[in-house]
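Example 3.2
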Amino acid sequence: MSIFHISWAIASLAIATPSLAQTTPDTIANTVLADLKAGDATNVVENILAKAPLISTGPAEKTNLINTLNTLFSSYGRVEGWELVGSRHASSRYVEHSYIVFQEKYAMSLELKFYQGKEGWNLTAFNFNDKLDKPIEAQFMEDLEKSLESLAAKN
């Protein structure tokens, strides 16, 4: 199976827009996931970048992202749903969410990273990948952590 991978991190120091002040990581993630389910790669990329004012892209990078998502859609089919498989909070102002996104023929992982600055929550990085080892590992570690906490509480 070939691997398609989209990863974008902060590339410039732009200032967050006030319209993002009312958002939360969950509302941003839900919008991204709903856009994926709608299946319009151009809309997905435009909306992600609108929620990520710190990510600097030019026309060539946007076209590459759109083409890669279109390849994922044509290879694996439309998005049918998703599950949150991991969430990490490095602090109250930095959050990461990991999802498995189910498509007709296969699944992909989606990682979203958020930071809460003076102007509100922003999407600072995103990663689509058809390699599912990272979300599965994250879920395993979360389950292991819960089991260890449960054992410690019993003792």
